[in-house]
Amino acid sequence: MRKELGLLNVICIAVALLFLGLAILNALTAAELLTTDNLFITMVCLVMALVFGINPLLYLKSEGRLPIPFAKRLGNAQKQVAGSAGVARIGSTTPPLLDAKGRPVPADVRQLASRFGQAQTKDV
Question: What is the domain range of residue 58?
């Protein structure tokens, strides 16, 4: 499976570079760059390069091989904001809530479940 993903990523990168090359070639060889046809061809090539180039980048990000600048700072800031909210207190005092398949339930769902669990019954 890893070999297949690697091959597909290499093919996607090659096609993305091909489309970037076509956009550059169009910009260099066009007599008038700002005509409707030339702008259309350039934009189509750039969009296709983006379409083929985003998949390998997302794969590298999911594998943790692509360093993202300022990601650590943003992660720490979000943890501090979430720590001041009531969601963190609910998660730390209650046992983990599991769904039907045994997976842990996200914090927002736990918060909703705790609200619904506190409903009072009405006297008839």
Answer: 2-63
